[in-house]
Amino acid sequence: MRSVRARAALGATLVVAVALTVAGLAVLTVLRGNLTDRAGLEAEVAAREVAGELALGVAYGDLELGDEDTHPVQVTDEAGRVVAVSKDLEAISGTGTAQVVPAPPAPAPSPDDDDDDDGNDPARGEVSSDPPDFANGTATVGGEAADYRFAAVEATTDQDVTLTVHAGAPLAAEQEAVTTVRNSMLTGLPLMLLVVAGVTWLVTRRALRPVEGIRQELAAITASEDLGRRVPEPDSRDEIARLARTTNETLTVLEASVDRQRRFVADASHELRSPIASLRTQLEVGAAHPELLDVPGAVADTVRLQVLAADLLLLARLDAGERPGRTPVDLGALVREEVSQRAADRIPPEVSVAAAGQLEVSGSRGQLARVVGNLLDNAERHAERMVAVSVRGDRGDVLVEVTDDGSGVPEAERDRIFERFVRLDDARSRDDGGAGLGLAIARDVASRHEGTLTVGSAPGGGALFTLRLPGRTGAGQEPAAGEG
Fold first, then answer.
1. pTM above 0.90, yes or no
2. Which of 164-173, 202-211, 285-294, 475-484: highest mean pLDDT?
3. What are the residue boundaries of the structural domains of the chain, listed by start?
4. 315 Cβ partners below 8 Å, 6+ apart?
5. Residue 144: strand, helix, or coil
6. Core vs surface per residue 363-401: b (16+ CB within 10 A) or e
7. Which residues pair with 463 in a beta bridge?
């Protein structure tokens, strides 16, 4: 059963069926018990009336045995012999004996003369005050058999003879009532289950109608590959509406990711085409005219291709979700090392490290070195006379600040410069300005290390890039696999 509506309707129907069955059985049990107790009470009243007559010394033949058609009576002595029965009683069961013919009465004992001389009153009979015993049985009266509820009451005569009176009350009313209720339930239960199944089907169908709309729209998006489309959002505030909103949010993120990927591929192809074309031209000229081969230019183009390929590979690894290692890295020592490699640069940076001890973070030393190097390259590219780098601790974090005295970054462009293949100075040549991946890589690496990279204005003008990373608090760990 693949339909949610069918499963919901079947489940609801089964639950209601079980509940109604249990409730019906409980109602029938209570009803049968109440009617049986009522019949037992009638039987007890009839039995005590006869027992009262016996206690008063009424002879067996003179007993008022009530209505024989509705309350059959059987009286037995201590030996179990029947001494009196209702008129027209032909058969009986459930009273301890099936005899319906009275036996000859036993001779009564003679009164003791000594007792009369004492002046005491003769013994008087009594009816037992103990609760009677009840039992279900049958009786045939006047040729008609029926079920009865029998009550057994003991009585003691004035001759100290203990007798047991069995009186019955018919169970026909109880059986008829139970049968009527049971038949009504058996007739109404299927109808009620059909109503429950139908209502559940319709309600579920209406509730799931937006889901079908979402499914159809997603199928259309898949077929058309148009990620700009969105699924319909219901006006309700239920789970289906939240599902539609989440689906649209996912489509928005996916569309942005695909667009970014397409731009990345297009920009990468464009950036690669220029050095490749230049290198090919130089090699073709060198092949035709060896004396004209520009070896330094070919080497520069090759190095540029190598750097660009390394940047693209690192971005691909970052986009794939590669997590950096957890190796302890001393940022102060790392910055000094990166600065020392730029001693012969156009503007050697000035370095200041403010720390009471080691300024350590956890991460990939190679990736963090790439971040610092990219920040230094960017600062030197835009500086006029000065580049300064400082490393210090700040409330449990480690800050690396790179400052230059260039023209700075306009406030409106401070987020855009971290996008891939973005160069604010369009007039700058690619050889001087790079491919526009350095800052994008730096921010991605900082984010992977649970840090941030921001840009602002330096106190004396120019740009101020601030790299903030959480300081290392735990013990050193082994580097993760694939650490760069």
1. no
2. 164-173
3. 4-178, 239-318, 324-470
4. 264, 420, 437, 440, 441, 444
5. strand
6. bbbbbbbbbbbbbbbbbbbbbeebbbbbbbbeeebbbbb
7. 457
Residue from 163, 165, 100 nearest 133 by CA:
165
Predicted local confidence at residue 113, as pLDDT: 47
Helix-, strand-, coil-residue percentages of the chain, each rounded to 5:
50, 20, 30
In this structure, whether the domain defined by 324-470 belongs to CATH 3.20.20.150 is answered with no
How far is residue 237 from each of residues 49, 216, 234, 245, 252, measured CA to CA in Å? Answer: 73, 21, 8, 10, 21
Tokens read off for 265? 């591929």
The domain 239-318 is placed in CATH, from the list 3.30.160, 3.90.1200, 1.10.10, 1.10.287, at 1.10.287
How far is residue 72's CA from residue 39's CA, in Å, rounded to a whole number?
Answer: 13
65/83 Cα distance (integer angstroms):
13
Q: Are strands 144-156 and 350-354 parallel, antiparallel or unpaired?
A: unpaired
* pLDDT value at 474 more than 70: no
Compute the mean pLDDT over every residue in the chain, rounded to the nearest whole number. Answer: 82
Burial degree of 480 (CB within 10 A; 0-12, 13-18, 19+): middle
Average pLDDT over residues 11-18: 91
- For residue 78, with 0-12 CB atoms within 10 Å meaning exposed, 13-18 middle and 19 or more buried, which class applies? exposed
Q: In whole angstroms, what is the distance from residue 214 CA to residue 234 CA?
A: 10
**pLDDT class of 116 with cuts at 50, 70, 90:** very low
In angstroms, the CA 469 to CA 477 distance is 17
End-to-end CA distance of the chain: 52
**Amino acid, single-letter form, for residue 49:** E
What is the rounded radius of gyration, in angstroms, for the C-alpha atoms of the chain? Answer: 53
- What are the tens digits of pLDDT across the range 275-284? 788 778 878 8
* Spatial contact of 178 and 194, defined as CB atoms under 8 Å apart: no
